[in-house]
Amino acid sequence: MYKKCVCLISLVFLLGLLGMVDNASALAVRKGPYLIYPGNNTQMTVLWQLDSTSTCTLAWGLDTSYSTGSANTTEYGSDYQHKYTITGLTPGTKYYYLVTAGTIQSMGSFRTAPAADATSVKFLAYGDTRSGAGNHNSVCAGINSAIAADAAYQTMLLHVGDWVAADAEDNWLLEYFNRSYRVAPSADALQTQASLPIQGCMGNHETVTTPGVVYTKYWPYPYVAAHYWSFDYGPVHITVLDQYTPYTVGSDQYNWLVNDLSSSTKPWKFILLHGPGWSAAGGHENNTSVQTYIQPLCVQYGVQIVFGGHNHYYARAVVDGIHHITTGAAGAPFHTPLSGQPYVVVTVASTLEFCKVDIVGDLLVFQAIKASDGTVIDTFSIEYAPDTTPPDPNPMEWSSAPAAIGSTMIAMTATTATDTNGVEYFFHNTTITGHDSGWQAGTTWTDTNLSPNTLYTYQVKARDQSSSHNETAYSTTASETTWIMGDLNGDGIVDLLDFAKFAAHWLETGCSSPDWCGGADLDQPADGTVDFYDLEIFVEHWLDGLIF
Questions:
Q1: What residue numbers bound the domain in which 423 lies?
Q2: Same structural domain for residues 405 and 370?
Q3: Which residue from 169, 168, 167, 178 is spatially nearest to 132, judged by alpha carbons?
Q4: Would you say 154 and 355 are in contact if contact means Cβ atoms under 8 Å apart?
C-alpha cells in the first residue's frame, strides 16, 4: 500500500511540479533543470544544460501562469550550459518556473529561503550518491514523498559529497544527472533536482580524474576560495568545508572557518563535510584532522551538528554534545559498520536513507529516514539554550594598568576572563579616535604611534564567543603619559643614560613596531633605521625634563 501511495504521490508531484515535456526535437536537455541557493533569500539560481546551442527562456511566478517575470538566457562556457539567478523574490515563498528551449519545456518549483529573522525551518540531507543511479533515484523517491506529505520540506537538500564515482563528464552524465528515469512515475531524481536547491561539499571521488574541475563546472557555488563557503538559511548557519584544501591551524581555510563561526549570530550552526571525524569504520577510518582541528572549533563556537558521509551507511556519534552524522547511503555500494566504535550511538547498515531536520524555535528534531518506506531509523532532539551570561569578571578588570614603554607606546594587560564559550578582549582609547584594539583573543595590547609626553586614558571590556556575543561592562579607566621624546629609559629626563641606550642601537636596521629598536628610531616609522635623522631629534630634546 505504501509503495502504491508513493507511486501515486510521485506521479502527481511530478506532473504538478516538474511537468517535463520532451517533444520531438533535435534539441535535448542533457542536465537539469536544477537549483542552487546563492545565499540571498530573495534569489534562486536555475541551471540546465542542452546538447546543442539554443537561446532559452526562463519564466517564473506564484503559479503555473509564470507571470511574475521572465528572462532570455544564452549559453555560457563551452558546453551548452545555461544559468540564471532570479532576483527580487519574496522570502519563504513558493515559486513555479518554466524553462523553454526550442519546443522543449521543463517545469519545476522551489521555495525561497526563510526571512533572516525566521525562527523555524525544515530541510533535508543525504550523500554518497556516486555510481548507484538507480539507488539514488529510489532515495529521491523517498525525498519526494516526504515533501508531498509535508510541503514545508521543499526548502533545500544538503549533499555531503561523493556525488559521482569520478570527476569526469561521463560520470556526471550517467550517474548524478542520469536521465534514464525521466518517464513518470520514475523521474524521481530529476524531480528532486528541479524542486530543491542542492547545497553540497566536495567528496574524495570528486578529486578523481579532474580534481574538482567538472564538479565546479556544474556546481558553481559562491566559494570563498578552493571549494569552501558558507551561507545562512533562516535561523541556520551552514559552513561547507573543503577537506582537500589545508585546514590545519593557521591555514587560510582554518582562519576563515574561525572567522565564519565566530561572526555568525545564528542560533543553529552546522558544518557540512565529507570525511567524518567519528563514524563506525567498515569502509573508512575516522578523520583525525576533523577531530584535531574542527571539533575544538565546534565546541568553542556552538556547532550542534556536523554532517558527513564517506562511509556508505547511516551512523551517529556524539562527542562533547556535538552530533556527528554519517549519511552516506544514497546510492553508493554499502559498507558494513563495525560495532563498538568510540562515541558511536547508532548505526544502520544496508539501508538507503536520507535525513530530515525540523527546527521550531529553540527545539531541533532530527530524523534519519529509510527511503523505501519512510520508516524512522534514528531520531534525536536538541534544545538550544542561548548563552546570556557575559564572561567573568564583569565589569572587566586590569591585570596590568596601561604603562608607557616609550615616547609613542603604551602597553596594557587585561585580567584573563573565563567563559565556557571562549573570550575576546577590546581595549578602548578614550582620548583619541582610531586607537582601539578591535576584538582580539589575547589579553595584552600595545597602543602605538602615539604623541610623546601626552596623557592617554583607556578602558577594556570582554565578550564571549557564543552567537550572542555577551559583553562585560567596561573596566574602570586608567591613564598613562607617554615618555618625553628621546627619554629611552623612562626616568623623565633626556640625558647621558638615554644617550648610552641610543648609542647601543646606532645604525641598527629593521626597526619596527612596537619596540622601534629600543625606542632609538625616533623618526618612526619613517625609515626603520637608527641614524643621523634620529640623532638630530635626540639632540633637539637634550636635557628635556630636567628642572633647573
A1: 398-481
A2: no
A3: 178
A4: no
Query: What pLDDT score does 524 carry?
Result: 64
Residues 189 and 101 in one domain: yes
Which amino acid, 338?
L
Residue 393 maps to a domain: no
Q: Is 254 exposed, middle or buried (0-12, 13-18, 19+ CB in 10 A)?
A: middle
pLDDT digits (tens, 9 = 90+) for 373-420: 999 999 999 999 888 899 999 999 999 999 998 888 899 999 999 998
**Dihedral angle computed from the Cα positions of residues 447, 448, 451 and 456, in that order, rounded to the nearest 10 degrees:** 0
- Note the pLDDT of residue 241: 98
pLDDT of residue 17: 37
Structurally, the chain folds into a number of domains equal to 3
Q: Report the C-alpha gap between 337 and 330 in whole angstroms.
A: 16
> Residue 419 is placed in which grid cell?
567563559
Whether 462 and 536 map to the same domain: the answer is no
Q: Looking at the whole model, is its pTM more than 0.70?
A: yes
Q: Which is nearest to 530 in space by CA: 473, 484, 489, 488?
A: 488
Nearest 10 degrees: CA dihedral of 311, 315, 317, 322? Answer: 90
Inter-residue contact 68 to 94 (CB < 8 Å): no
Enter the C-alpha cell of residue 420.
565556557
Domain presence at residue 221: yes
Q: Are residues 426 and 351 in the same domain?
A: no
